[in-house]
Every structure is written in structure tokens, then in C-alpha cells.
Amino acid sequence: MKKMLHNPLTRKAHRRESWWQIYLPLILSALAILALASWVVVAGAQGSDLAPAADTALIFLLTPMLLFLLIPLILLGAGIYLTIRLFNLLPPQMLRLQRFFTRLQINTQRAADRLAEPALRLAGVQAAWRAIWQSLRSRR
After folding, report:
1. How far apart are CA 110 and CA 53, in angstroms?
2. What is the pLDDT of residue 1?
3. Where do the structural domains in the chain lie, given as residue ranges?
């Protein structure tokens, strides 16, 4: 296996950036959470009313969830709006399409009738001759 060669300058810059961008915010957040937890424990032990702090914490907990629910709500509203627009746009277009298919049906029926007419005439003439011939035979 080949040993990877690293540039010492970029490796040093990466370590410095990872300290400032990853570890420092993580440590500060952990310290802030510990400070808030200890404040709640001390305030609760002294008999303070923690309801306002609990209400505030609940608001902070619900806000991200409400923001994430805002996206589907916007998509739903856009879907409703586009559906209404489509319902207003479709009837005239569907009427044009229905008229086109009605004309197509009529013209197809006429063409089929014209194509079948010679065969039907021939069959009619044959039937007439057959009937005449049978009537002549039955007289004898």
C-alpha cells in the first residue's frame, strides 16, 4: 500500500481550522448547556418559579420544528394555487380538444362509410339477384 504524502503547511492549516470551526464551538455549546442546567438546578433548589424559563425553553424547542413544517405548508399552498389556475385554464382547452375529436370521429365515420359503400352495393345486388332467382324457381 502506498503511503500518502501530506503537505505540512495545508495539514497545519487544516488542524487550526478544525480547532476554530469544530472543537471550539462544540466546547462552548457544551459549557453553555452545563451552565443553563446548573442554573435550573440552583433556581429550583431555592424555590424559584421556573415556569417562565420552561415556557421560553419550549418556544425555543418548537421554533425549529415549526420552521420545518413551514416548507410543506408553502408547497401545499402552491399546489392549491396551481390547481385552481389549472381548473380555470383547462375547460376551454378541453372543449377545443373535444371538438377536434368529434370532427375526427365524424370524418372517420364518413370515410369508413365511403369505403364500405361499394361492398354493400355489391352485396345488395347479389341479394336482389338471389331473391329474384329464388322467386323464379319457386314459381316453377
Report:
1. 83
2. 52
3. 58-140
Cα separation, 126 vs 120, whole angstroms = 10
The residue with cell 361492398 is: 119
* Confidence grade of residue 12 (pLDDT, cut at 50, 70, 90): confident
pLDDT at residue 137 in the model: 86
What does each C-alpha distance from 64 to 36, 59, 70, 76 come to in angstroms?
20, 9, 10, 19
How far apart are alpha carbons 43 and 51 in whole angstroms? Answer: 11
Angle at alpha carbon of residue 77, lines to 74 and 82, rounded to 5°: 125
What share of the chain in percent tops pLDDT 70? 96
Q: Check whether 3 has a pLDDT greater than 80.
A: no
**pLDDT over 70 at 70, yes or no:** yes
